[in-house]
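Q: what sequence does this backbone want?
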């Protein structure tokens, strides 16, 4: 009720114009945006899935979020958020004009980004719909189906998101985050007091508490819970070394492509300056990961020790995605359970709100305003944004009804759909010869391949489909670029001078220097690469630290803390202290 009230209360400030509605007028401090962004990522559906991964895979489950990939936040922090914010645009589709100009290729690229953004938002909405319905059906006392509960909660949240825009989303997410923070810490402490290391060892296979792995997973649940072994086979991750290599390969490419056109990109574009955009992406890692994994580890060990008999009774029909709600209902005391339920509902509302806010920005600003009615009053654009938000929610819910499980939607989004996004969006930053036609055909080929693969080969693992989709998209990008004229020199030079990327830009740099001899090449590649590697190590340390604390492995917790402190000290010197210089250089 408070969340909805706040959303309506600040709606007047949000409805002045599109910049206020979608980006908060670029006036919100970086640390507020960072907490808001973290809150938007602290989603209930993802938390249910991550509890499953830690339950089944133990400490090795901490690597599995790299499938998103989680470490894309490190790439954003180190350099990509600053590059993107320097463009000073409203949406990712509008950014296309700064890179490809205003010709036919740019217009085609503009349209395909909008298509991808809307498809992605609909995918995430169906993912959230599936999770909130399952969660609510366990706790709430009415005899309603999970899908009905999904409709109710999405309807409530849509009210304030549609009315309040980015201001509403950000400030309600601050409230929601602190509820989730208190609930997460409480659950972790309860688990530490209720479960001993010996009790965990008695119900888990050898190697469950080991972060590191060989080519094969070597987790044998036989005799403990045979159905888990079958689930590992179904996931296709028994050859964990191969899975890890594939995940890292995909993750680096997706991260180097920059943020997808969703709520993460909107937060970056909302920052007050390029350096604040980088700081915002940096704080997300600290604010999000520790409390979230403290909660995940707490729920996991409670389920491992106290729900073993229940799961054994289910035989091969265990629904591991229900571990979270069952554990909360049965093993948390009154009060703490209520707080956590409120926190997880807040987490759902945060993610849903942020996702819904991203979609109409593309449809209204990049289609209606650009091609249909460029001179309408600001209030017309804002009212159309209200309508567009509602329509996107309706379509997302419709797809949610058709989805089989959280896991299936998750893997399709992170492996299939992003496979179509990656090639074009890597090339746009680092290769000067890449043009609008290449972008369009690369994205089109990739999106079509990612949509066809699950239908044509329904049993094919989503992660293994990524290289196929990537190659198809690369081929479209390469041929589309080389068979058409390059982007106009003036556009390329303006882009280079403004964004200042490193990569294959030498011909453009030389032309820029002829126009202005003070312009220097961006020589930060080696330092940025070093900071990315160091940052990934720190991110993994902050992920496993709360798990080690909850399972009471104090020695490894100490190592994780030491690595985290060392990383923060190094990044203070190699990244934070140089931010202003990086984004003020000519």
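A:
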């Amino acid at each position: 009720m408070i969340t909805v009230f706040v959303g309506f209360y600040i709606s007047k400030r949000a409805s002045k114009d599109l910049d206020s509605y979608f980006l908060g007028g670029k006036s919100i401090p970086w640390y507020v945006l960072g907490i808001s962004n973290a809150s938007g990522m602290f989603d209930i559906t993802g938390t249910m899935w991550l509890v499953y991964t830690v339950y089944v895979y133990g400490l090795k489950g901490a690597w599995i979020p790299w499938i998103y990939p989680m470490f894309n936040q490190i790439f954003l922090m180190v350099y990509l958020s600053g590059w993107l914010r320097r463009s000073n645009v409203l949406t990712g589709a509008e950014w296309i004009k700064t890179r490809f100009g205003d010709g036919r290729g740019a217009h085609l690229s503009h349209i395909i980004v909008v298509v991808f953004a809307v498809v992605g938002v609909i995918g995430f909405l169906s993912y959230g719909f599936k999770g909130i319905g399952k969660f609510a059906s366990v706790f709430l006392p009415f005899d309603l189906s999970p899908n009905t509960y999904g409709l109710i909660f999405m309807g409530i949240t849509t009210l304030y998101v549609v009315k309040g825009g980015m201001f509403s989303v950000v400030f309600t997410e601050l409230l929601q985050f602190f509820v989730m923070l208190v609930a997460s810490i409480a659950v972790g402490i309860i688990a530490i007091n209720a479960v001993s290391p010996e009790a965990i060892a008695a119900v888990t296979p050898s190697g469950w508490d080991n972060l590191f792995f060989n080519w094969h997973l070597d987790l044998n649940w036989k005799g403990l819970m045979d159905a888990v072994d079958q689930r590992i086979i179904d996931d296709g991750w028994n050859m964990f070394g191969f899975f890890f290599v594939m995940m890292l390969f995909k993750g680096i490419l997706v991260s180097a492509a920059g943020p997808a056109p969703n709520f993460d990109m909107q937060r970056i574009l909302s920052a007050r300056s390029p350096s604040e955009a980088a700081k915002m992406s940096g704080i997300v890692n600290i604010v999000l990961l520790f409390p979230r994994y403290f909660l995940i580890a707490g729920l996991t060990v409670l389920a491992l020790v106290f729900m073993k008999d229940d799961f054994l009774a289910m035989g091969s029909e265990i629904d591991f995605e229900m571990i979270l709600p069952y554990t909360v209902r049965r093993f948390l005391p009154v009060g703490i359970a209520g707080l956590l339920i409120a926190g997880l509902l807040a987490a759902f509302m945060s993610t849903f709100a942020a996702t819904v806010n991203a979609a109409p920005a593309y449809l209204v600003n990049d289609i209606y305003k650009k091609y249909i009615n460029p001179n309408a009053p600001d209030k017309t654009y804002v009212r159309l944004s209200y309508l567009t938000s509602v329509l996107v929610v309706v379509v997302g819910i419709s797809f949610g009804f058709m989805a089989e499980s959280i896991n299936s939607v998750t893997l399709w989004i992170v492996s299939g759909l992003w496979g179509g996004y990656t090639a074009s969006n890597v090339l746009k930053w680092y290769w000067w010869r890449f043009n609008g036609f290449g972008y369009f055909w690369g994205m089109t080929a990739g999106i079509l391949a990612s949509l066809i693969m699950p239908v044509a080969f329904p049993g094919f693992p989503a992660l293994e489909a990524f290289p196929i989709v990537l190659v198809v998209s690369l081929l479209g990008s390469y041929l589309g670029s080389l068979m058409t004229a390059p982007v106009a020199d003036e556009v390329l030079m303006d882009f280079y001078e403004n964004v200042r990327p490193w990569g294959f830009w030498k011909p453009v740099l030389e032309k820029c220097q002829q126009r202005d001899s003070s312009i220097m090449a961006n020589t930060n590649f080696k330092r940025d690469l070093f900071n990315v590697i160091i940052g990934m190590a720190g991110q993994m340390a902050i992920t496993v630290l709360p798990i080690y604390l909850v399972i009471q492995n104090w020695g490894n917790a100490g190592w994780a803390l030491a690595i985290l402190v060392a990383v923060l000290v190094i990044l203070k010197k190699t990244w934070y202290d140089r931010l202003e210089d990086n984004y003020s250089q000519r």
